[in-house]
Amino acid sequence: MSAFPSLKTRMAEISHLEMASAVLNWDQRTYMPARGAESRAKQLATLAKLAHELFVEQKTQDLLAAAEAEAAGVDADSDQRAYLRVARRHMDKSVKVPTSLVIENTEVCSLAREVWAKSRQDNDYASFAPWLDRILHLKRQYAHALGIPKDGCLYDVLLDDYEEGMTVRTLDPVFTDLKTHTIPLVAAINAHADRVSNELLTRDYDESAQAEFSLAVIQELGFDLSRGRLDKTVHPFCTNFATNDVRITTRYEKNWLPGALFGCLHEMGHAFYEMGINPDYESTPLANGVSLGVHESQSRLWENLVGRSHAFWQRYFPRLQQTFPKQLGHESVESFYRAINRVTPSFIRVEADEITYNLHIILRFEMEQDLLNEKLSAKDAPAAWNAKMQQSLGLVPPTDREGILQDVHWSGGGIGYFPTYTLGNVLASQLFAAARRAMPSLDSDIRTGIYSPLREWLRTNVHHHGKKYPPATLIQRATGKPLSTDDYIAYLKVKYTAIYRL
Amino acid sequence: MSAFPSLKTRMAEISHLEMASAVLNWDQRTYMPARGAESRAKQLATLAKLAHELFVEQKTQDLLAAAEAEAAGVDADSDQRAYLRVARRHMDKSVKVPTSLVIENTEVCSLAREVWAKSRQDNDYASFAPWLDRILHLKRQYAHALGIPKDGCLYDVLLDDYEEGMTVRTLDPVFTDLKTHTIPLVAAINAHADRVSNELLTRDYDESAQAEFSLAVIQELGFDLSRGRLDKTVHPFCTNFATNDVRITTRYEKNWLPGALFGCLHEMGHAFYEMGINPDYESTPLANGVSLGVHESQSRLWENLVGRSHAFWQRYFPRLQQTFPKQLGHESVESFYRAINRVTPSFIRVEADEITYNLHIILRFEMEQDLLNEKLSAKDAPAAWNAKMQQSLGLVPPTDREGILQDVHWSGGGIGYFPTYTLGNVLASQLFAAARRAMPSLDSDIRTGIYSPLREWLRTNVHHHGKKYPPATLIQRATGKPLSTDDYIAYLKVKYTAIYRL
Lengths: 502, 502
Description:
Two copies of one chain form a homodimer.
Chain A: H1 3-30, H2 37-56, H3 58-70, H4 79-96, H5 99-122, H6 125-146, H7 154-162, H8 168-190, H9 207-221, E1 228-232, E2 238-242, E3 245-250, H10 257-276, H11 292-306, H12 310-323, H13 325-328, H14 333-340, H15 356-372, H16 381-393, H17 419-438, H18 442-448, H19 452-461, H20 471-479, H21 486-499
Parallel strand pairs in A: 1-3
Antiparallel strand pairs in A: 2-3
């Protein structure tokens, strides 16, 4: 008897439990009545517990070991070997972390999220600080349990959960490079801030008209409603229950048109990834995007490289004018294009433009390392935050609420997560440049509404592989080179030099 | 160490898996993109398999046996004893059914539902027939696995899943009684069919105005949106994931006002039951309504005894007129009351009036027995359906879509389910008569919009108990007598003699 089919059956059950959890989470964030929360938490806890137990129990470990022994002679590039590699990676991580630490982490993070929500609301960082300390302490224990690589650091262990193989050593030059090139660019833009206004985006835009327009656009771009949905939530997200069932959400703001518009394109990019994965990988460890950074590259590519391009709006601006004749009837595509690409230093990461966004991320990346390495205490973190903001963006948040308390991530234990956002930006440009080399007509295609070649290129080179290749291998295969900021920096310089006539 | 707490922990996990399945089912019927069906079937199959395995595994059986031994001296009327009685009933059924049959049943039914939806839409019974055959075959296997009682029949085994203790032997005289009294009543009404018109219900009623009115009414009657939702589906239903998370659905037809209106009241009645169950029973075998018949009594009570009463519309007709001034502005509450109570033989069960409704059920009850007993093949079923319709209602459906394809039940494996609808009609009248004896002001309360006394009476006498008492015991306690058609037949005769001036 071959062990691999039995392992696959077992792993498929675990995957089904995880997908069921995803449905329950989606429902909780879209449609669940408020008072359903207490029971929902118990249902989710049970699903997570059963999935974990099924995975780490001796029988699964034995099946995995036996399947590995069987596969010794199998082609190293086969799906089978990739399956076992990913399963092993997950197993090794799961068995090394003591259950007591997992439980404590879940409990602390659950409480910390509530403390954070209240402290943010009350602008009371002091009450959150001890919880941040506890989380940092747990993260250090976690990293030590998994084992810190000889040539690496504690932060590398956390990074690896979100971006396999990524290290501080790889990230540092990338981020330094970005700072070197974007800080002067932002300064130059600031000196001519008056050249671009975004007032036209802040007019009254009816919510249901926004929804209708956004949905029509993403459908034309290829979002297939027989395989996905768009719903409304407070915090937009993408989730998937199968390659043929991928859900995205958005929020609508009456006086901020880009929110829903680019939010939809962003989540659509995530959705295309999940919809494009090899259907043979369904219910296996190879399903799902390979890393957060690569995932974010797909959302950013559609949101920014396509969605904030001049070519795209040559096609869509006339339609947007038809949807909002009173608000946009007398505007030009040029002024709309400039408005949606306005650059301005601001306090809030999620509202930042393409260029300054990365400075928000780098700040967090630096602070996370200092906090983890105990060079900085949680107590002193707000002062450090504000000093860094002053340095990189020339601003100091008037309150912690608009500073260190703005993001949910740390309170939920998400340390090492932020860098993947900027990795996504960098990779989006690197992939887009590779796509353009393969398809010289790409820009004119975008202008004329031909999106399937780009979609197909991404599907073939990125989506299809799921988790088969580690991120670095995937990027090398798709773009012919390792992670590099060249394409991204060139893109930013060309685009914004033109917009701001620098 | 006491076994009962450990049993409860284990049973709570099983309940959480079942509630997760309910969420996945709800999603499949409300919002899931069409092509998600295949993966969803697998996810549901895994959840059902794991719940079944957890329940029937030796450890659970041992815990149940130990808990039973511990409880020997405990008050027979206690929740603990009721818990163990219900768990034992379920266990005895579960251990007899092979896991493979449970899995096959879940998968087949999930796919069959999709086939049914399409075949109904396309009026293409032929594509559904082989699925009905598969389902019937599985049901026969199931009944034989459980064991057919010596003094009973195969159909009794299926009935007992929906209505504990119910048998063909008990149902036959109830149904005969109904036929005896209602066929002449329908004949007398038919002779004066021209005395009631429902034309006013077939005017153009805007869907969103219907939705707004229906939602406002059920909220006034006590449907709490912090504990429930109303959504739109092809086939209306009620489901629950917790006493504080109960979902109902309806459908809107532009030229048939009663569809959504009474559909909402009907599902609201089901929802009140689930929302009213003792919160201590959450995640235990005592949660949920005790049987489908008792459940249906709650929906029918609000839909018909309240919703189709003259008293109710004295309050709500003026508001309905305000919602639809063009359509109803010149109508009287009297003509509206008569219209919504028009009796006329028709094709569609869910649109049938109170009297002929039961003839639809009796048709299905008879066909299910013939199909199960292989006196009738799935292939020949549409012809048999049409012949029976001709016999009992004097009509032949022009298409299968208006005939055998109209209901979702068989496609979901619900065979033995239909009789509980008529049981519900009978019990609704029996309970309403008991409530009226306890609250002489009931009719004037309904007229003046005071609904909480009726809601509370039902909660105290029916809802609160969950599955604590078997249906027959519950009915005896609540009404002072066993199941009886007396109140129902008296109600129908008085009401319709007046409406039709017989």
